[in-house]
Design goal:
Elements: H1 10-15, H2 31-76, H3 80-83, H4 86-125, H5 132-140, H6 153-178
Helix pairs in contact: 2-4, 2-6, 4-5, 4-6
């Protein structure tokens, strides 16, 4: 694999098929090859966008579930929760915190999946006239290293399930103290 084929990183080494070169598409100066790379790029960017849409739906689902749980707990706290045995309260709080943990793990999984997809997109861009994502946009944002330039969405997303878990723990403590 040559340096021009992206042999510098392990993502590039896994991405590019060394057995296929622009010469294999040797009509009109490799036009078919460039067209094939562009089509694969478009398809892959669309797949990355779909992952982001699924991630957003997942967050919406968990946000709705947690909001409903806290609203319900607040609405029935004066009567139902006072009569519920302590072990029932502990189980309810444990279930709520466990689903927050699952939410946290899903966000982390989406982050890892997106990171890999955008590395591949960056490598594909090395074969295109413009490097929109990796070299331009991501560099412009400081690669997410400075909060002043850009706060990656994942950092914000990861805080939300933790906040809900803390709210459940506080609510449990309040109910137990009020008994």
């Amino acid at each position: 694999m040559t340096a021009s084929q992206g042999g510098g990183s392990t993502t590039a080494q896994r991405l590019w098929n060394g057995a296929v070169t622009p010469q294999d598409y040797a009509t009109a100066g490799g036009e078919k090859y460039r067209t094939a790379v562009m089509e694969q790029y478009k398809l892959y960017v669309e797949m990355a966008d779909r992952i982001s849409a699924r991630r957003s739906l997942t967050n919406t689902f968990f946000l709705t579930v947690n909001s409903a749980l806290l609203t319900t707990a607040g609405a029935v706290s004066r009567t139902f929760l006072k009569e519920l045995p302590v072990w029932g309260l502990l189980i309810a709080a444990l279930v709520a915190c466990c689903q927050c943990l699952v939410w946290l793990l899903l966000i982390r999984s989406y982050k890892q999946l997106n990171r890999a997809k955008y590395r591949v997109i960056g490598e594909l861009e090395r074969r295109l006239p413009a490097r929109l994502y990796l070299e331009a946009e991501w560099s412009e944002l400081g690669e997410g290293k400075s909060w002043k330039e850009y706060v990656p969405l994942t950092r914000v997303e990861l805080a939300v399930p933790v906040i809900f878990a803390v709210l459940y723990a506080v609510a449990l403590g309040v109910v137990l103290i009020a008994r």
